[in-house]
What does this fold into?
Amino acid sequence: MRTPSAINLSAEDLLALYRRMLLIRRIEERLGEDFKRGDLPGPVHLYIGEEAVATGVCAHLTDADWIASTHRGHGHFLAKGGDPRLLVAEVYGRAGGVCRGMGGSMHVADFSKGILGANGIVGGGIALAVGAALAAQLDRKGAVSVAFFGDGAANQGVLMEALNVSALWKLPLVLVCENNGFSEFSPTATVTVGAIADRAKPFGVPSAAVDGNDVIAVWQAADAAVRRARAGEGPTLIECRTYRLRGHVESEASFLAGSYRNDEEVAAWAKRDPIARLAGYLDEHGLAPASAREAIEAEIAAAVADAVAFATESPYPPADQARQFMFA
Amino acid sequence: MARRRMIQAINEALAEEMARDPRVILFGEDVEISIMGDTRGLHATFGPDRVRNTPICETVMTGMAVGAAAAGYRPICHMMYGNFLYTGMDAIANQAAKLRYMTGGQIKLPLVYMGVFGAGRSSAAQHSDAMHPVFMNLGGIKVVLPASPADAKGLLKSAIRDDNPVIFLQAAGRGGEAGEVPEEEYTIPLGVAEVKRPGRDVTLVAIGAMVRPALRAAEALAGEGVAVEVIDPRTLMPLDAETIVASVRRTGRLVVVDEARDTCSAASHIVAVATEGAWGALKAAPRRVTVPDVAIPYSPPLEKALLPDPERIAAAVRATLER
It folds into this structure.
C-alpha cells in the first residue's frame, strides 16, 4: 500500500470505499445465513472476499456508465448503486425485487443505474458490455462500459473477440477480470495457462495485474482505465487477483463428494481480507477513528435489517406474472 | 408500384429506416461492400459510425447487439448466412431472448438479426439450413420470413421499429426475385398472415420460399377443379393462428409446406395448432410437406430431391381429398 499523500484518495473517499465493501459483505453474510436456513428459493454465489474489485472499479462510475456482471453479481450491483432492498427482495423471489422475482440472484439488474445485469452464463456479460460501449461511443457523452468477468470466463472465446473489436474501434470499455482462483470447482491453474492480464498484449491493449484484495490498488488501476476509456483511447484489461472465500455456490457442501481446496489456503487468504486490510490502513495512517468505522458498522447493520424486512414483507409475485415480460 | 428485386426492397427498407431514426445502426461482416447487395450504399450514406464492418466474430456481434439495444440504440446485426446465427447462439438464446423477461420487463430490446437462409444454391449443409424452428422455440424472439419483395420491405421496416428482438430471414435463393413494391411509405405488421389466394377446398400454408411453389401447385390444382387457399404466415413468432384456423374450419383440409427439417418444423407446429383449433371441421388428416431429417447435400440433383416442389405439394393436397 502507498502512503496517503501518494494516493489520490481522501480519508472521506477511503471511508466511502470501506462503507461500500462492508455493505456488500454484510448483505451477503446475511444471504448466506438465509440460504442455510432454507429461506432462499434458489442458489446464491457469494462475492465474499472479492469486494475490493467491484468497489474499487465502480467508485469511478456514475449511473450514466454501464456495467455487465457475472453469476457472482451482488457485489457489482451494490457497488454500482443498486438498492439493497431491491436486491434482497429479488434473491428472496418476491414481487418487490428489482426484477419482480423474475430473475433472482443470477440476474439482478437495474438499467436505470447502468447495471446491465448479473449473468448466469460464464462470459455472457462481456459482449453485452461491448455493445453498451459501442452505444456510449456513439452517444459521445463520455460514458464508459465495464465488463466484470471471472478467470473462468477468461477462457471463453468471447474475450478474444471483445479485445479485438474493442481495440479496433477504440471502444470505451474496461475489462475487469476477477481472478478468484477457481473456475467453479477447478483451481484456475489446472484449467488456465499463462497470465490472464497478458491476454491483452497481442491486441495492443494496455493491461495490469493488480492485488484484487487491495481496494486502493484496484481503485488506481481502474482510475487509469476509466480515464483512458472516457478520453476515447480504447479498452484496458485489468486482472484483479483475489480469492473466493466462500464456495462456488452456497449449496456445494450438499453435493460435493470431496474437497477441491484445503483449509490452510482459505485461512491464508482470509488474512488478506480486503475489508480488514483497508481498516488496517485507516488505523495505521490515523485516517479515521475507530468510532467512525463503528458508526458505519451500525449503519450497515440497520440497512441489512431493513433490506431483509422489506424482502420478507414483500409478497410473492402473482402466478400470472410468469407469462408477462417476454415481449414489450 | 415499382418493380423491385427482393434484395433491393430490403436495401430500401434499411435505408428508409436509418434515415427515419438516427438510433438505427447496422453492423455485420462485410456490410460495407455487401456481398448480397442488401446493405449496399448504406455505409456511404450513413457513415462509419452507423454502418460498421465487424470482424468475423458472431459470439461478440450477437451480444453486442443486445448491449447496444439495452443502452438505447436499435441495432441491426447482419449475420450474412442464417447458419452463422448458431455461432452466435449464446447471446441470442440466453441474452436477447431472455434479458427483458428475467429483469422483470425493465427494458426493451429493439434489435434485428438478419441473414439469408435455405437451400437451392448448392451451398451445402453449413450454409443452407432453414433454421427458423430453432428460433420459434426460444420465446422472446420474433421470427419473420418474407416471401415477396413487397413483404420483405414492409416486414423489415416493422421489424426495425419493433421494440423486441427479431430474426429476419430472407430466402437465399430468392434475392433476385422481382415483384411489385408500393412506392409510398408502408409497413406490414408482424404477426399477421396473408391469404395469397382464396379457395374453399384445401388450406395450404406455405412458409418463406415455399410460397411460390405452393402457388404453382394451387394453380395446377385449380385446373383439376380443386380450389386451394394459400396462406403465407409471414411471421412465425408470433404466429397468426387465427387466420390459419379460420381457413381450416372452412376448408376442413390442411397442408403445410416448410423448407425446414420435418422434426419440430414450423409445419409441425402449425399442424398441431390447426388441429386443436379446427378439429371438428377436419375432413382429412393434415399433412406436412417438409425436408427429411437430413442435412442439405451439395450436388444439385441431391438437393433438388429433398426440397418441396409444386409436384410434391400438389400430391399432398390431393392426398387430403382422398377418402
Notes: Chain A touches chain B through 47 residues (CB under 8 Å). The mean pLDDT of chain A is 97. Chain A has one domain: 8-312. The two ends of chain A are 50 Å apart (CA to CA).
